[in-house]
Amino acid sequence: MGLKFIEAHKFDIDDFLDNSYFEKFLDTSSEWIEKRTGIFTRQFSNCGNDLMALDLAKKFKNPMQDLDLIICASFTSKRRMPSISSLVRDELGGNKHCLCLDINLACAGFAAGLIIAESYLDKGRRAYIFASEKISDYMDMTDRRTAILFGDGAGGVLVEKNDKLWETDIASFPHEDSLNLDENSFITMDGKKVYRFAVEEVSNSIRRLLNKNNLRGEDVDKLILHQANERIINQLIARLGINKNNSLQNLEKYGNTSAASIPLVIAENIDLFKDKEKVILSGFGAGLSLASILMEW
Amino acid sequence: MGLKFIEAHKFDIDDFLDNSYFEKFLDTSSEWIEKRTGIFTRQFSNCGNDLMALDLAKKFKNPMQDLDLIICASFTSKRRMPSISSLVRDELGGNKHCLCLDINLACAGFAAGLIIAESYLDKGRRAYIFASEKISDYMDMTDRRTAILFGDGAGGVLVEKNDKLWETDIASFPHEDSLNLDENSFITMDGKKVYRFAVEEVSNSIRRLLNKNNLRGEDVDKLILHQANERIINQLIARLGINKNNSLQNLEKYGNTSAASIPLVIAENIDLFKDKEKVILSGFGAGLSLASILMEW
What we know:
Strand content of chain A: 25-35%
Protein name (chains A, B): Beta-ketoacyl-acyl-carrier-protein synthase III
CATH class of the largest domain in chain A: Alpha Beta
Distance between the termini of chain A: 12 Å
Enzyme class (chains A, B): transferase
Structural class of chain A: alpha/beta
Strand order of the largest sheet of chain A: 1-8-7-4-6
Pathway (chains A, B): Lipid metabolism
Domain Beta-ketoacyl-[acyl-carrier-protein] synthase III N-terminal (chains A, B): 101-163
Oligomer: homodimer
Largest interface: A-B, 52 and 52 residues
Radius of gyration of chain A: 18 Å
Family (chains A, B): Belongs to the thiolase-like superfamily. FabH family.
């Protein structure tokens, strides 16, 4: 059993900051940032991720009143009660038997949300899965290793349980202080550890999915990787033998938006997906954790 | 399909504050608190809910290396990366394909975690579901309506998917500013709204579960309600016609520990449950949300 993607949208901030912004106060250059990360612009939100989520939810045209599940994936939520998923349900006037959950598995949170939804829903039933991240609240703007990487963003999908191909792969590894965030502090990252984990373990994960289904990299019609860093994405594409044109990306525009990166990519490209295409999604990050899905569109 | 409870434990703080503590700085009295809430003592933790969770996990004697799922339910987590469930997995040296999720549905979070686990696990597979709450970080000690109600706590259960009775009921209602917590602020509560919701809707929820299975209140062998307030618990027992002796409680000792209240009750009473007993669990609170389960032990 799998999931059909009915509709996808993104929250619009409409104010993109380019890399020259950081030249004013960091010992860095636009060229260096572009070359090292693949990021050209990012957005910083003026409102909290709860208001971003409410604005996003209003964009959906399909009726949201009959959902069985609403999941908000985020590691940056400041609203603790009611949960953001509950707020969204309240706003949508949703079905009273809808389960509302806020979940956190950092950058793998949205993919994990899809996996939970697929196991929870009965056939023909629907869920709204979204991610809303205001990472700028937790960025040390004086740390040139992290300030240039992240952006705020929110995206979501309305899905329905169907019986198409759905294969998942979850994996966790020792975190070894690779990527940390405690309250009232800033994100700290050991870039080398995260890079090594992503390149090695995400390729292993996607290979497991392909092998189980007798597929090869070249059979993948659409690849949506967590938008962490261009080097990681390029390495994964090369290792897996996936056609680079089939990798949907928006890193250059939004930077790393954690759990929001995958739904943002889906929302921007929803019209490109064709019936029966083989699609791979993979979220990865702090934990260290990854969640990958092979599905038929 | 349902869940078998293999093992349950609680985190020990070992320092109980009685109601006279509040007499020193609030216009209240021990007698008033006891009479209005049923709470005699509570615990306030010196460490964060992440360290509480790690300490709790170490108490389990069954091997935790082969779990498919670890869920931490909490609305008070300050650790954002890695998630607390990931930290726990790291500590346990767990199975690398274990999905680790931190979830928030306030006081209904632990029951929601069980429901997610039951849908995610294959038969014979295991999950570790726990709740860890340090509510004292978010209590306004000058507000006599809320300061006296909450306590810190953590409890968890190791469960295995079986094929016994498992019926669930989820419901959500407009929150109407009844129970709120945003970052850097304190819990605010409209006690009347929460009371009305709990008494009306939790009894409706449990009645739906009983009716679907042709059971009556007197058939319930063990009742574990979220430990919010003695008046709510007594009202629910009376409305449902459940034998008061079958309601397992610890409100008087711990106060309201949000998501942790149900696993704390289970951990303290695990030896009392007998094979084939009909057990009802119900978590309810901010959202407004509730999650109820009817299961056979």
